Amino acid sequence: MEPKSEGTEGLRSIPALLLRNAAQFGDAPAYREKEFGIWQCWSWKRTADEVEALALGLLNLGVNPGDHIAIIGRNRPSLYYSMVAAQSVGAIPVPLYQDAVAEEMVYVLAHCGARFVIASDQEQVDKVIEIQDDLHQFEHMIYLDPRGLRKYDHSHLHQFSHILDQGRAARDEFLPELERRRSALTYDDTCVMLYTSGTTGKPKGVVLSNRNIIESARAASEFDKLKRTDEVLAYLPMAWVGDFIFSIGQSYWTGFCVNCPESADTLLTDLREIAPTYYFAPPRVFETQLTQITIRMEDASPLKQRMFRHFMAHARKVGPKILDGKSVGLLDRLKYALGELLVYGPLKNAMGFSRVRVGYTAGEAIGPEIFDFYRSLGINLKQLYGQTEASVFITVQPDGEVRSDTVGVPAPGVEIRIAENGEVYYRSPGVFVEYYKNPESTADTKDAEGWVATGDAGFIEESTGHLRIIDRAKDVGQMADGSMFAPKYVENKLKFYPNILEAVVFGAGRDRCVAFINIDLTAVGNWAERNNIAYASYQELAQHPQVLETIKRHIEEVNASVAQDEILSGCQVHRFLVLHKELDADDGEMTRTRKVRRKVIGEKFHDLVDALYDGSDSVYTETEVTYEDGRKGKIKATLKILDAKVVPVTGRMAAE
Amino acid sequence: MKDTEGYVTADGRQIGGVLMEMRNITLKFGGVTAISDISFDIREGEIRAIIGPNGAGKSSMLNIISGFYTPTIGEVWYKGAKRPPMKPYEVARMGVARTFQNIALFEGMTVLDNVMTGRLTHMHAGILSQAIWWGKARDEEIANREKVERVIDFLEIQNIRKTPVGRLPYGLKKRVELARALAAEPSILLLDEPMAGMNVEEKEDMSRFILDVNDEFGTTIALIEHDMGVVMDLSDRVVVMDYGKKIGDGTPEEVRNNQDVIDAYLGVPH
What we know:
The complex is a heterodimer. Helices cover 41% and strands 22% of the residues of chain A. By secondary structure, chain A is α/β, with parallel strands linked by helices. Chain A folds into 4 domains: 4-209, 3-Layer(aba) Sandwich (Rossmann fold); 280-379, no CATH class; 385-474, Roll (Luciferase, domain 3); 477-655, ANL, C-terminal domain (GMP Synthetase, Chain A, domain 3, 2-Layer Sandwich). In chain A, strand 17 (415-418) and strand 18 form a beta hairpin. Chain A is globular, with a radius of gyration of 26 Å. Chain B has a domain at 1-91 and 222-270: Rossmann fold. In chain B, 36% of the residues lie in helices and 24% in strands.
């Protein structure tokens, strides 16, 4: 809401920022993508040139102001600047999750009434063609990779490079119109529309204005002192607000380079080659990397293992303190420096974190042990708390005040209020305009004064001013005896164990808690291999007695740790089972950003929940699964149910 | 159908004139007749399958096409001219590339290096210049590397580019072999059981790659395969062999209804 950045500089839209960047530092890299084994580079000048050609091509196709253009595909420079080209002609880009199945796409495409689709390849084109009869407004589709598409009917299908050529050819004809539309963009025009994955119900189209995106990106860039020379790796779904803010908002504001990996399979190699300075990942990615390191260390020679364990213990002791600039003894510092040389440095290099100046994790709470692991290595990993509706930023952790149990202080320009029931409300320049074609939900979420309900319960620590999130407001419940039930708290503790990929704890309104566990196939598979345990399938491995025994041990350790917490000691897990399938977004059990849909899971597997409570020691179940191409099938399994030891809580009785 | 005339396939692809023709081929090993008096042609741009029960002589036929065997009797015509007896590497230079039934890759070398060997027929720099990697050798290698990278991209094996082949699972090795054959930019590609030993998903991937190669580069493909579903789906025309004789030739539909073929596959009561 600071007018100075609006009026004087005239930077009221992403296309305007692009023109500024091309004029001021046109030769600096804007995008890189690895193709044919080499990092190909787009300078800001080239980006501006291609955006203009594409925008002219879109005009040539008949794009009107206010049209929605869906963008589907993996992170590629052409798709990123397609969004900017769409904005340039007054259209609204709508990035979609590329792994969504056709039925999910049909809802979003029909809801926004997309007339145009820009898709990456045959796979995405096929999905849209499959559903196009249900899309009344859909007219043209543009694809990037022509492979396999030669024989398709091209009456409504266009190759990306041809559109660029047509745009360039029609430059004289359409340039005045392009300039007119581009300069007509105001701060309150829609910048992008992003569909929230929604842990409940149908996705909602969050409308974010240029003001939302640019103000949020500017504030956050200044907060972390981002520079033009920073490097990011764009690998998170383009449909996710975080990626839009980092790879478009902040990149165009500060002018740093966005690097796109060669393919999803080469991600880790590309990460190592680029070594980003500004890095962003959901907890899941950090968990996966830690799991991989743990596995690889188990395969290492005894000497290396001992060295690793010795120095990691030291890092845990002093690493975070050194990172926060607190006083640490000289001897400890020397030992840490030696560790950096022998262990931490090579480890960071192997993970591609050698140059990370600022790293963020968000989307979900991260296990404290995982968080501390990365910080102890000297990686400035911080937490932020955000939402699509806030253009990401609600709270962030300032350097030097990083803790695993809080999500930081309000981001610049953000006000926070805690309601009576503990729900967190915020107001900021980044607050979304509305849910598209959904005034009721808009009114439910955002009040007349601009306060937005987060749906999360939390409180502000009085001594530090940091916000602490307890859980989703609607997930926090009570157990039968009235004690507090916060499933995520327990789940996060469980998920720290490399063997446990996902956990779902039930217990609201019941006398005790039970849990579903998903094993991590990489970690458990590696363990099985080393111990000569044969298994034919995920299902079989999941039900192996030794695996169950290991999981049981993990749960008992977690119970002991939960028992320490006065308020949440009732959340210890009494009984558990290991699920026969991985929870999957394709089956609706998780969101596309991989958050568990507790309610869906509870309903879908109600037979298992019942069995956990009725005391039986095994349960037979059949589950419908969706294959990648949308076909359905059934998995049948008999699952064993085990009891876990709980620590008796006597303290509370005494306190009462 | 005249030699120069093409035809249009069921899915609308234009097939050209005869690229390679086998005329009355007979192949004998001492007293054993592996192939007796077989004639058929392969047309430009088509996917031609050779099928038949075990021991029918399919691989021998492929070996004749690739120049590994010289037929005892008969002629091979290629691009309108009779092909004199040649060494396999000379045949390769004429634009014939192949994969093997039992993978024949350099296990200790990386995928990239293996695929680069497919470019050997296109490299002409002297040994000295190659040893010091200077001048022509360097330019040549860069140009060839680019071609190889396009193949790697096409077959989606970027993530294993630097992995030694010995560490790869079977299905991927098969794909690397295809990559090496493709890197030679052949006019005709011979695939000896490209799907053998693969699971359903790998077969689907491989089928897609074969179709894409044919579609994208217009490469003529001759393949031997046992999986009838795959053969009937992929190929435009099929030659059926049994005990060294040709017992059928035509579109998958014609072959499927050919009584001799049915007998050869299902057996007949004696």
